[in-house]
Amino acid sequence: MMQNHHNLSRPAGQKLRRNKLKTQEWLDELLLVLPASVLLLTFLILPFLMAGYLSFTDQRLIPRPIPTEFVGFQNYLTVLRDPEFWQAFKNTAYFVVLVVPFQCAISLLCALLLNSELHLRSLFRSVALLPLVTPMTVIVVIWAALYRIPDGFLNSVLHLFGFQGYVDWLGDMTFAMPAIVLLSAWATFPFQMLIFLAGLQDIPMERYEAAKIDGAGTWEMFRYITFPGLRNTNIFILIITTLQAFKLFTQVDILTHGGPLGSTNTLVRYMVQEGYSSQQVGYASAVAVVFVILVGALAVLQRVLLKNE
Amino acid sequence: MMKIFNPYKALRTLAAVVILLCVLVPLSMMVTLSLNPSEENILINMGTLHAFIPETVSLQNYKEVLNDPYQPFARYLLNTLLVVFCTVGAGIFINSAAAFALAWGRGGYRKIYLMVIIAVFVIPGEALTIPLLLLVSKFGWIDSYQVQIVPFIASTFSIFLFYQFFSKLPQELIEAARIDGARLFQIYFKIGFPLSTPVIATVSILGFLDAWNSYLWPLMVTRGTEFRPLGVAMAAFFGTQQAYWGNIMAFAVLMTLPIIIVFLVFQKYFVTSVVGSSVKG
After folding, report:
1. Which residue in B130, B152, B215 is closest to A137 by CB distance?
2. Do A295 and B127 touch (CB under 8 A)?
3. Which ranges does the record mark as transmembrane (chain A) (predicted)?
4. Domains in chain A: ranges and CATH
5. pLDDT per position as a tens digit, A123-138
6. What residues of chain A score a pLDDT lower than 50?
7. pLDDT, tens digit, for every residue of B70-79?
């Protein structure tokens, strides 16, 4: 009996210990994963699901005596028929179309400069990075001074070139969005510049040396070596610049309040207006869903288009 | 030896100088206007060279900004620092821990977890602000510090960067620690976390910039001066006192200076972090 007990107990004890170890390991893993998971579920996944659900209701920010009702696709129909939404959509698209090529070109140009032989290269780089660390609200205020009418700095520059009168940069429907574009490009071009710079440094020097031997000029080298060599960088930059541009909010909210006549109102600002200022959470959620679909589709489209090129 | 004049190099230098001026003109205007105590002079100077080259140097505007009882600059700065450090600090531990479990844990959930993390990358945070606002107001968090900190601690982007780093650690290293009887938690804390300083630097710098720049969210969830950060305060200040350029620019300089100093000190890490995040991300 005793022997039997012994024989049985040893493997059982080992199994117990192994089970204990396994439980401990699971506990450890849970401990590591849990905090981030709880936070992500609460503040990312839950709001995401809420946006989807709320977009089908007439939820308000502040509770009303009448309970919240399910309204089906009502909010979406209203969104699509709302001229203010379409104006915000057009403005955002206009901003993207202007700012993306402009900003990409400037940052590529700066990266090319920095990558070549240049006096005071490190000083140039440090200074070029300053806008990236200047808070956006500060940048907006500085540019508000530059755009001042009738005698702000930019109008003085125009005078210098013989232009009579002045441009109402922020108050004129034609100039307001381009003015926002200029400011935005100034504020964030260093980010793209740094990424271009990293891409440039990944192109092997031998290719340039070989091209030089073949007698290629500066333009040929850019056209046949640099630009193709930056293919992945270009894709990445195009995607992030576009996504960044779609989120335009701070600049127009402080500088133009979406004006004049709604000509600089953007999708994000329109959503905030509806959800926060007008407290129409259900309706704003529908705008948010449309916004997510737009941005998602754009990211996918860009990726597909550029991969096939 | 004759120095050969290189026209390309001269042209490049010229282009660089032009770009340098484009960057410096707005920034130097901020400083110059902030040093001018006379609002009248500021308006006269705004379109002239004196908008960039100080005519007078006075700290009057700074004194006014720092002593303004309605715009407590010190309070705003404290609020911002607290929010930034808590968000970034807690984020480093929580995100790296999750990433370590994803890289070296044994649960079958890990693949799905990673897929979800990559999928939600595309969701712009701005799109979630309205439901998030409803959520935090149900928690009773409006106008507080936690409303500006807690929702932003966990970040799929940070988890992904940490995961990429941890998953490249040599298998032998982790196995050896396991054989020595170390538990997953210990391996994370004694091996994984200390080794990940480059990623920590990256997510700290990017998180710092993000938190320092945040505007939309604190605008919606803070009501008065008590919990308001610098960014929202600056916008409010600008909105109410549009005429007082000198004070506004002094406020702007005070708000920008700390972050520029941090940038100049950590410039090397700053550049590698921006580049690293994009190449890896």
Report:
1. B215
2. yes
3. 30-54, 93-114, 126-146, 175-200, 221-246, 281-301
4. 82-306 (1.10.3720.10)
5. 888 899 999 999 999 9
6. 1-8
7. 889 999 999 9
